[in-house]
Write a structure and sequence with these properties.
single chain; mainly beta; Maltoporin, Chain A; 5-stranded mixed β-sheet; globular
């Protein structure tokens, strides 16, 4: 396999941690697998090339940010923020939203252990990646844009697959293997402290494993030393796995529990005051003469609570709601199954067929008694959303240099919700909503075709085209309030949003082309360039109902509406090995960068949350048990903003990050300094600073960009028992 070549020189086997099992979608060669084994219990990040994630052997293009994974776990508890090749829209401490080529949130299909967890919150405070700590993620796979139909469905931006540790059985009958590890970390900015513990016991047929993690952090400070109110958080995750293997058959049951008593959101007007998620997931994988069969079934239940006037957000004397407290209560469920058959039709042909169901329920009520109202505000009344999908794929290796992958998919989405009411009962807006026909049925037809050509052992080229569809979520379609209190706030921009039951599904047409060049020896250098274009029909944008002048607030009241949009951009990455000698070790230079532009063609405005031109250059070193890296990141000014959403501009900035690690027997020590020079800057995707809305000295509430975190000294230690 050619795409892990630069890592061959730095792959080591100093650790004998548990083996990280990767699926055939992104196979590793022997050297890279050894490197992956050194990063067990850390976040191993994979980024498959656009449109080419399912081919085996030499056709799978992989970038592994291996040396950075462990240090990023020490320096960050937000899984979305450690993904390679992915931008993240800042939110709470563990709830950032991944952005792939300008598309994010529900436009990306995110599976945690194969389960599509829907956000049970109008502000999406509990997105899928918030339910798994980076320390518990054994591998993460990112598939931008034109993803295979077997991994897509009801999404247009790409797919993210996250897996906790897969079962590792004892190698021989009668053997019993036991493994355990503990780790802990501390970050100076925000006084964050946390840790992880794992233990497993396995025979050749059975395995039982446990993983747990927790973190608590106070409000962070920016580069000027100013405290960012409402940015503290606390969360814990518990995960149990039991598995049984018989011949080529693997049976697995996973159960997980998350408890989050608090998570502040400085770019929202509400904070999370409780989130409890319980999950169960069963999976079967069997090997037969004709190929493989995979079956899974899952269920989860989420209880979510928010409040709009929690103590650390504003001074006690300031009561912005006039009510003192402003609680909300949401309950959500996900349930479903997935069946996939991988049929080896010939030595060159593989056929894949599958069927899956994903059901969602959501109930969203805002208790009236705490705000002095006679009635509870019912935002979503026992809403239901059911997706039924079927797909077929054909992968063919025409020769040793040319391979194609094509597929089609059909999804049907059924949505409905019950009657609603406001704080005063059935007001005119609620009455109009209740009298309307609310049930909707959407039919999707997706198709993907990708091809890869490798003319020689120094270059390869990939081309992918796709048609993808996504239906509106609960709040885009059914959030019915139209006044300042009744609209939902979302996206970290301070505006209020109203749903639109007549929204059509988004239909995206994507094309991407990639080139990969490297030296003949496949060890010294590599350059990869990917360009893409996406045109979206019925893009779910917004129109203004009421601007700041009539709302009496700094934000606008907006309604979702179908528009036409386009997105395009380029990603570049490169690696160059500077030296590799026993005396000084391995030095290598890495670089990555990209830009994305997004246009709303219907309103002639910019799309929201487009990342400006940015790049990162790193100098990495490894010698024996030592590994270190110095990282320089530069981001251009953000001037292309969405004026309808009052998106703020942000200045350009540069930051330095430093990290080092040392492995001594079964103990690993990590040290990192993020934002080494303590630069004061704003994340272009950070939204507005809502917890500083009422700044002293200003005549009224005023929007400012949310400041990013200042310098932090991060330390961590991992011990294998």
């Amino acid at each position: 396999m050619k795409h892990n070549r630069v890592l061959d020189d730095v792959a080591t086997t100093h650790l004998t941690e548990r083996q990280v099992e990767l699926t055939k979608y992104c196979p590793l060669n022997d050297a890279a697998s050894q490197l992956a084994s050194t990063l067990a219990r850390m976040a191993l990040v994979l980024a498959c090339s656009p449109g080419w994630a399912q081919t085996g052997g030499e056709q799978a293009a992989i970038v592994i940010e291996a040396t950075a994974a462990a240090a990023r776990w020490v320096g960050n508890s937000d899984t979305a923020s450690v993904l390679a090749g992915v931008d993240s829209a800042q939110a709470g401490g563990v709830s950032s939203l991944p952005m792939i080529h300008g598309l994010g949130d529900d436009r990306i299909r995110t599976l945690v252990n194969g389960v599509p967890i829907a956000a049970a919150c109008p502000m999406h405070m509990n997105p899928p990646l918030s339910y798994i700590d980076p320390a518990n993620a054994s591998w993460i796979e990112v598939l931008p844009g034109a993803t295979p139909v077997s991994l897509g469905g009801d999404s247009i931006g790409g797919t993210i697959l996250v897996e906790s540790a897969r079962p590792t059985f004892a190698p021989t009958d009668g053997a019993v293997e036991r493994d355990a590890s503990v780790s802990s970390f501390y970050r100076s900015n925000g006084a964050a402290i946390g840790g992880e513990a794992a233990a497993s016991m396995a025979t050749s047929a059975f395995i039982f494993a446990y993983e747990g993690s927790g973190v608590r952090a106070q409000d962070y400070r920016d580069g000027a030393g100013e405290k960012i109110n409402a940015s503290r958080f606390e969360t814990s995750n518990q995960h149990i796995t039991a598995a049984y293997r018989s011949g080529k058959n693997l049976y697995e049951v996973q159960a997980a529990l998350q408890y989050m008593p608090y998570e502040g959101f400085p770019n929202a007007d509400m904070d999370l005051t409780k989130n409890v998620g319980a999950f169960i997931n069963t999976r079967y994988q069997g090997g037969f003469d004709w190929g493989d069969m995979k079956i899974s079934a899952y269920y989860d239940h989420v209880l979510h609570q928010m409040n709009g006037n929690t103590p650390d957000r504003y001074p006690p004397s300031l009561n912005i709601t006039g009510f003192g407290v402003f609680p909300t209560l949401e309950r959500g469920q996900d349930f479903g199954y997935r069946v996939e058959l991988d049929i080896t039709a010939s030595a060159r042909d593989t056929l894949r067929f599958g069927n899956e169901l994903h059901g969602q329920t959501l109930d969203d009520r805002w208790p009236g008694a705490p705000v002095g109202a006679m009635f509870d505000y019912v935002s979503i009344n026992n809403g239901t959303r059911t997706q039924l999908g079927t797909f077929a794929e054909w992968e063919r290796r025409w020769s040793g240099r040319w391979t194609t992958l094509g597929g089609v998919r059909n999804d049907t989405i059924w949505m409905d919700t019950g009657p609603v009411q406001g704080y005063e009962g059935i007001d005119p807006t609620a009455q109009s909503f209740n009298a309307s026909h609310r049930a909707r049925t959407d039919v999707h037809v997706d198709a993907t075709l990708s091809t890869r050509y490798q003319p020689d052992d120094q270059e390869s080229y990939s081309l992918a085209v796709a048609r993808k569809n996504r239906s509106p979520n609960f709040y885009e379609r059914y959030a019915w309030g139209k006044n300042t209190i009744g609209t939902i706030t979302w996206f970290g921009d301070g505006n209020g949003y109203t749903g639109n039951p007549d929204l059509k599904p988004e239909t995206a047409y994507t094309a991407s082309i990639s080139g990969d060049w490297h030296d003949r020896a496949a060890r010294l250098w590599e350059v990869k360039v990917t360009s893409y274009y996406t045109g979206v029909q019925d893009y779910i944008g917004v129109v203004a109902i009421c601007g700041p002048a009539c709302s009496g607030m700094p934000g606008s009241q907006l309604m979702f509406a179908n528009h036409r949009a386009r997105l395009y951009g380029t990603d570049v990455s490169a690696v160059y090995a500077l030296s590799n000698t026993p005396e000084v070790g391995v030095f290598r230079l890495t670089g990555s960068g990209g830009f994305v532009r997004g246009d709303d063609l219907s309103t002639q405005t910019n799309l929201y949350h487009m990342m400006p031109l940015h790049g990162t250059i790193g100098l990495e070193h490894q010698r024996g048990q030592w590994s270190s890296a110095l990282e320089f990141r530069a981001v251009d000014r953000k001037t292309q903003v969405d004026t309808t959403r009052l998106e703020p501009q942000t200045p350009s900035y540069t930051i330095l990050n430093l990290r080092t690690a040392y492995q001594w027997r079964s103990v690993r020590f990590d040290l990192a300094i993020t934002n080494l020079l303590d630069r004061e800057y704003e994340n272009p995707l950070g939204g507005t600073w809502q917890s500083d809305l009422y700044r002293p000295g200003y005549p009224g509430p005023t929007f400012h960009p949310l400041p990013a975190s200042g310098r932090s000294f991060d330390t961590g230690v991992t011990v294998r028992l």
